[in-house]
Amino acid sequence: MSAQKTSARRTKPVSAVGAFVGFVGFSALAGLLVTIGVTPAIAVAGVTTTSTIGVFESLPEYIELGDLPQRNEVLAYSGGKPTHLATVYDQNRQELKYDQISENLKNAAIDGEDKRFWHHGGVDMTSLVRAGVGTVAGGGLGDSGGGSTLTMQLVRNIKMQQALELPTQEQRIKAYNEATKVSVSRKLEEMKLAIGLAKKYPKKDILTGYLNIAYFGDQTYGVQAAAQHYFGKSATDLTAAEAASILAIVQSPNTRNLSDPKYYEANVARRDVILKSMYAQKHINTKDFKEAIASKPADYVHLTDPTQGCKAAAGNGSQFFCDYAVQVVKEMSQLGSTQKARDAAWRNGGYTIQTTLNLDLNNAQKDLINAYAPNTEARLALGGVINSVEADTGRVLTMVQNKNYNQLAGCGTEGADPNACAPATDSGLNLSVDQEYGGGEGFQTGSTFKPFTLLNWLQNGHGLGEIVNGTPRTFTSYPLCGSQSPTNYTPKNDSAGEGGNMTVENATYRSVNVSYINMAQKLDYCDIAKTAYSLGVHRAAPREPVAAFGDDMSKKTTRNLELYAGSVLGDNYIAPLTMAAAYAGIANNGTFCRPIAIDNVTNADGKSLGGQAKDCTQAIDPQVAATAIYALKKVLTIGTAGGGRTPEGFDEFAKTGTTNDADQIWLIGATTKVATATWMGNIQGKQNLRFVYGPNGSYAGSRTALWRQAQTIVNTQYPGGQFADPSPASIRGNSVAVPNVQGQTPEAARAAIAAAGLTYVDGGVQAGGGTPGTVLSTNPAAGLQLSKGSSVTVYTTDGSQAAIPEVTGKQIGDAQDALADAGFTNVSVSKDYPEGNGDNECLVAAVDPGQGTAVSKDTGITLSVYGNKNGKSPKGCR
User: Fold this and answer.
1) CB-based burial label for 753 (10 Å; 0-12, 13-18, 19+)
2) Labelling 324: which of 14, 457, 719, 773 has CA 20 to 30 A away?
3) Phi-psi bin for 113: left (phi > 0), alpha (psi -120 to 50), beta?
4) What whole-number distance in Å separates Cα of residue 864 and Cα of residue 153?
5) Contact criterion met (CB below 8 Å) for 420 and 387
6) Pairing relation of β-strands 81-89 and 71-78?
7) Which band of pLDDT confidence, cut at 50, 70 and 90, is reported for residue 209?
């Protein structure tokens, strides 16, 4: 016998030491609690408490239950009513009140974890002593039966939760390990804080807090999320077996959770212990107990995947807007005065976020962009976007793109698993928004930027009827912030051979580049940028900071537009949402409203905190806006997007935009109610979209139909009205008409042109009629409207030509005399006689060259004369 005992002791020497340490440790704790009078005295022999009391008294007295991280619900509109869009949370948790929790759950927690919960002061001496004895038998200090009451477990969970909320990963790991380490000091701290909790909070609050905070495996926190995840039902309605199965998870959430059948056996073993305890405490009757013990998890587990984040957002293509809205709400002062406070508030959750998104319109526009810019396009990295913004509020109604939402981590980074990356049909990049909201660097806008030059043109008193020259030429400077900046810039028009004099209105709806550069030459590029800024236009991504206007460094920012000779033609990289909001401002009588994504925020207590404040400013004079719209309307009728008006016949304006390489294609337009921006383009590389054909023809050519259908979708719920008519004076502006100086001497012509506020330019001598040395013609022609100071080129005549006089209907002799008087000496009569009718014999039927034609005086002129009724030469003609 003695040999056998010796052998047994030698096989477990470490465990024996551990058992002794564990026994002494727990005995010390029990003796300490007796000494400080926390619970009724229970004698523990041979325990010295003096040093332990000192440690205990140095610990904090209380820990707060606090607010637990909960789900945040994001709402959109459907059928005009709020509807669920997404559930976004830091931890998958939904807090319940005490009365909302199943009695079975409450009983399972108490009977399975802490039978004397209702009677002790946070620490249970009986369990503590039993835990000490158990630890001796088990060979170490652990949490299995470690005397932890529900209150002590709640303390540990609170400490764990506080660790998870620390700002850095290093801090989180350190604090979490401190909260969960197996040690006497940690157990001491838990007990003192549990005593503090028991003093401060009612038992019901402690039990509720425990059930709401506990981790139940598979990224699920709290009994409500666990019940929904594992059983597809509320924690209010759980059976005894379901309640016991959930509580069976808490001691070992990674090996007893119900996410996989491989964990069922371990779960059932602990479940049945809890059920037996519930039966012993008479919290379930014999019939229910037998049924629960006999049940199998497969009978009641109905696993429902947690719907975390915007990836699971409801609706068609709403995920990118959801992600944008979540980022916006985290910036709102309603969540806190600092970004740190706002981030913490969002993690704590419990918010209901009512966004501006119209799901019905968004769903339809997503189908539309998929049809026009399929994400399966393999010949290029094709992107496509539709954004609609309410004009008089800035509310973002739709935000769709052709790529599917996919935020796979690590894709594209060094060492990333290629199989973890999103396919070409997907993207984590929100093509609609600025970089800080998940977008990229934006896209070159092409001629959709021209309305800002047009607005500044009108702001400076110019009119739509003024003449600008669209013929390509080289510009050697451009006006920048009050001075001339040197350049060597030769812009091209989109159509070969396009040019000549044209009105600003014509240049607008035809989108003639050189005409617009000539307009900008009469303005100031910094002033054009100011006009764009007033409508919210800025670069989508930061760049090297520059001063906004001239040398005013107080306006230095990374989002200012880059200004150079060709920038007014749309070379800056801007997000589609920014452009949609700017056009909405034009449509809103020049009042710009910054984009809004959040209508209201409600906190966990049901209190409305309000939404994003409406931020509108009168950026453009209403008369200026109306005049610009007057010209831009024709884009959709006879201009570059002819046929683009929607079938309802609402008043609409728009502007097309195409980059130099036609790799970015835009059409942005608006009614009085809503502005819609459509964009298709290369996300990577360059591919001319005029030469790539999709489901609706060339991608470039299909933009008009895309915009028309996108705006038609919006018009079903937001019918537009009529834009205000501009005054004739606004259309005319302060332009002046070119005076008629034909036939005048150059000196007289110079004086008349100067008196009109224009600049005389000598165009030299040309072949022409009239008195040699007098004015033959001007360019622009007489009567056309020009800006004051514009040049008028004057051409004088050499007198070598004359205009063929009116001779038709005259007797042949009279016609010959008239031609001779005009200086024409080479006149003949055709031998082919048109058939006469007796009354017109001998009369001139026609002259070649035609009447009024200016030709040299020695030019051969042929008269055609009516003959007799038989078409023969008439007799007796003079």
Assistant:
1) buried
2) 719
3) alpha
4) 117
5) no
6) antiparallel
7) confident
pTM of this structure: 0.71
d(CA 163, CA 179) in angstroms, rounded, equals 8
* Token pair recorded at residue 421: 């990356």
What are the strands, taking DSSP E only, across 391-522? 396-401, 404-405, 426-427, 443-444, 467-469, 475-480, 483-489, 501-503
CA angle 756, 758, 764 (to 5 degrees): 120
Query: How many of the other CB atoms lie within 10 Å of CB of 695?
Result: 12
Residues 6+ apart with CB under 8 A from 732: 463, 465, 785
Cis peptide, bond prior to residue 40, ω within 30 of zero: no
Q: Which strand (E) or helix (H) includes residue 862?
A: strand 861-865
Q: Which two tokens mark 743?
A: 């036939």
- Distance, in Å, from the CA atom of 429 to the CA atom of 404, rounded to the nearest integer, reads 10
d(CA 620, CA 584): 12
DSSP string, 201-231: S-HHHHHHHHHHH-B-STTBBHHHHHHHHHH
Q: What is the pLDDT of residue 354?
A: 98
Q: Which residue stretches of 474-536 are H helix? A: 504-510, 513-521, 525-534
Return the residue matching tokens 């080129």. Answer: 793
Residue at token pair 């954004």:
387
DSSP 8-state secondary structure symbol assigned to residue 142: -
Pairwise CA distance, residues 710 & 373, whole Å: 13
| Per-residue pLDDT reduced to its tens digit, 627-675 | 999 999 999 999 999 999 999 989 999 999 999 999 999 999 999 999 9
Residue 687 has which token pair?
A: 């591919």
- The values of phi and psi at residue 62, to 5°, are -130, 155
- Three-state SS for 800? coil
Tell me the two tokens of residue 440.
């990229």
What dihedral do alpha carbons 325, 330, 333, 339 form, nearest 10°?
-150
Interatomic CA distance for residues 540 and 431, integer angstroms: 10
The Cα 764–Cα 777 span in angstroms is 11
Alpha helices in 716-856 (DSSP H): 728-732, 746-755, 812-821
741 near 782, Cβ under 8 Å?
yes
> Cα(673)–Cα(714) distance, rounded to whole angstroms?
9
Residue 69 DSSP class:
P
Alpha-carbon torsion 490, 495, 498, 504, what sign?
negative
H-type alpha helices, 792-835: 812-821
Q: What is the pLDDT of residues 687-735, one digit of tens each?
A: 999 999 999 999 999 999 999 999 999 999 999 999 999 999 888 888 8
C-alpha 162/C-alpha 877 separation (Å) is 119
The sign of the dihedral angle between the CA atoms of 227, 231, 236, 241 is negative
Which H or E run includes 619?
A: none
Q: Please list the alpha-helical segments (H only) found in 756-870.
A: 812-821
Q: How far apart are CA 18 and CA 145, in angstroms?
A: 16
Query: How far is CA 320 from each of CA 85, 99, 428, rounded to the nearest angstrom?
Result: 12, 38, 9
Tell me, rounded to whole angstroms, the distance of Cα 704 from its chain centroid: 22
**Contact at 8 Å (CB) between 404 and 423?**
no
Output the CA–CA distances (angstroms, integers) from residue 718 to 575, 593, 665, 721, in the order listed: 24, 17, 26, 10
Number of CB atoms found within 10 A of residue 621's CB: 15
Q: Quick one: which H or E segment has residue 300?
A: helix 297-300
Tokens for 522, please give them: 């009469």
Who has greater pLDDT, 213 or 384? 384
CB atoms near residue 206 (< 10 Å): 22
DSSP label at residue 399 = E
Residues in the chain: 878
In 3D space, the residue among 123, 147, 124, 153 whose CA is nearest the CA of residue 135 turns out to be: 147
